[in-house]
Amino acid sequence: MIRYSSVPTMFLILSFFFHIAAPSLSYAEPVVKEIDSENVARQLAIKADGTYIEGASAPVLSGNEVALPILDEATGEVLGYIVADQIKLISVLNEAGLAEVASAVAGVSAGAAAGAATGTGFALGTTGAVAAAVALGVGVAIAVSSGGSKSTPSHP
Amino acid sequence: MNKLPAIFLLILLSCSSAVTSYNRYPEQTSGTIDAILYSAELFFISINEGEFKTVWELLSDKSRNKITEEIYEVSRDRGVDIEKEDIRRNFQQNGLIARNFWNAARAKFDPDMVLEESKWDIGHVKSNSAEILITYKKSDMPSKVKMYKEEGVWRVGLVETFWPRRYIESFFSFLRM
User: Fold this and answer.
1) β-pairing, B118-125 with B129-136?
2) Residue range B147-165: average pLDDT?
3) CB A83 within 8 A of CB A51
4) Does the pLDDT of residue A90 top 70, yes or no?
5) Which of A93, A108, A136, B115 has a beta carbon 3.0–4.6 Å from A102's, enabling a disulfide?
6) Closest-CA residue to A68 (of A79, B135, A150)
7) Residue among B41, B87, B142 whose CB faces A154 most closely
8) Residue B120: beta bridge partners?
């Protein structure tokens, strides 16, 4: 499983297939249209003021960049990555008619915020929310370790 | 006529009824408690195992609406042409948006801290709502996870339980600026 350490080094688990685009959202049933070739991925990268990096090795990211993997449809092999600023990439994907992919990129931050709130909630307890927020601030990281006890029938 | 025996009998019958009711109540609550705990446990297990369709199905209506709305707003802010219904359908079908949302959430929250490292107790139980008190081993205070019975199924109020923390933290973060 890929874990995100922070937004600047965020890797998206998006499968943007080599010969298949994200399904259109304008129809009741998903409509899959073919895209031309790897050149399309390169063009998207250029339009987003980013780069297309060939190969399966995950690229190093900086700032607000994201890496969108391009997979071979038949084998699932990673052919390369579109590396670009998140905001610009979202805009380019949207303009290319790939709204689902664009929204998936945009929604990652919402997911991260949701996970952080849940983790912090459990770590600090919701009954002491206000006091804990004042004492520890925003975005407290949760340390996970082993052990624990359970007292309910579902946790004997 | 001496009314004392009649009064005594009336009191005896009332007590008997109360005892009978009291004895019946735990049997009904026990089955309900099991259902509540099962849903909550399955929710966190499903997050852990990447069964995001099940996760969505076990979310309360309010939680689903709020998550949909948040993704819609952040998408529209960035110029994405998408509607709320498209996002909701994506979550129902475990599409691209859903997978990325839940994987990003899972990167910030390890369900094992709830499943393996916390103590679970049942809080209040009503006909359509309940609370599970989950105390993480390193925490002094429990989290009161809110559960709601909707369409006959007990569902997790993720937003109802944890989103107020986000608003409080944002408020204090703003004050510290």
Assistant:
1) antiparallel
2) 93
3) yes
4) yes
5) A93
6) A79
7) B41
8) B134
Amino acid at B59: L
**Token pair of A101, please?**
């992919």
Where does residue B94 fall: left (phi above 0), alpha (psi -120 to 50 degrees), or beta otherwise? left
Q: What is the pTM of this model?
A: 0.69
How many residues comprise chain A?
A: 156
Tens of pLDDT, residues A111-144: 888 888 888 888 887 754 433 333 332 222 221 1
- As a whole number of Å, the CA-based R_g of chain A is 20
| pLDDT confidence of residue A25 | 31
Contact criterion met (CB below 8 Å) for A16 and B99 = no
Residues of B in contact with A112 (CB under 8 A): 104-105, 107-108
Interface test with A, best of B29, B106, B176 (most A CBs within 10 A): B106
Residues of B with CB below 8 A from A153's CB? 33-34, 37
